[in-house]
Amino acid sequence: MIKIKKNKVKSKKGSIKVRLLVIPIIVIILSIFAIGAVSSLMVRNSLISQMKENGEFLLKQFSSRIEDNTNSLDVINDSIENDIINASKVIEGEGD
Fold it and tell me: Full-prediction pTM beyond 0.90?
């Protein structure tokens, strides 16, 4: 009967060790994993929103530059037309 009591005491001590050591370690590991997963999702969402904002900004800049280039080409075309008209008037004046 003494041997049975010793085994029961050892099994109770083992369960106390498990409760005091293993369970908190598992809880800590799971909480670290949860914190990592949440922070990873938050960083991912933040990066995606930042990329969207940067994309919109770049599109606006691209659109603005195309508009400026179009206006510049219009001014250059008007200037060339005026130069051609003036050159033709000079040539007509020499022909008289």
Answer: no
